[in-house]
Design a protein that fits this description.
By secondary structure, the protein is an all-alpha fold. 63% of the residues lie in helices and 0% in strands. The protein has one domain.
């Protein structure tokens, strides 16, 4: 029983690949967030909302904030990447998308190990996450 228990604690090949990609993606995403934050804080890239005015928006609901600042919900932030306070969304979106990449990179490993059902499920999971994030179905895409 001890040998079986010990064997069950070993990571499978696809788990190792998933974890390696997730780790690299997390580090890259964190780097992007830190870089974009530094560009914002150091004033290298002008913000959409001036730093000295941020506190006046804190008490607003999301709808009030978006209306008052003339910001549109969803993926409109992509068109505002020239502003320091929106540039940090790149790192956040990248981190959110790493899971999709992880599901896709394990597909060849699963297929090679004859886990075809799990390979198909991984592709479907990546597809579902991509559609949900896109906002195509009217879910907001964030």
């Amino acid at each position: 029983m001890t040998a079986n228990h010990h064997k069950s604690l070993q990571a499978s090949p696809e788990q190792v690949v998933y974890a390696k990609v997730l780790e690299k993606g997390m580090l890259l995403g964190l780097g992007l967030i830190l870089l974009s934050f530094a560009l914002y804080v150091l004033g290298i890239i002008k913000p959409y909302i001036p730093v000295d005015q941020i506190s006046k928006y804190w008490g607003l609901s999301v709808d009030e904030y978006l209306h008052t600042t003339n910001i549109h919900a969803g993926w409109s932030w992509v068109g505002m990447l020239g502003y320091g306070d929106f540039l940090n969304f790149v790192g956040i979106a990248f981190l959110a998308g790493v899971t999709i990449v992880c599901f896709l990179v394990i597909v060849p490993v699963l297929w090679k190990n004859n886990d075809k059902l799990y390979a198909v499920l991984s592709v479907l999971e990546a597809l579902i996450l991509s559609v949900a994030a896109s906002g195509i179905l009217g879910s907001g895409g964030h």
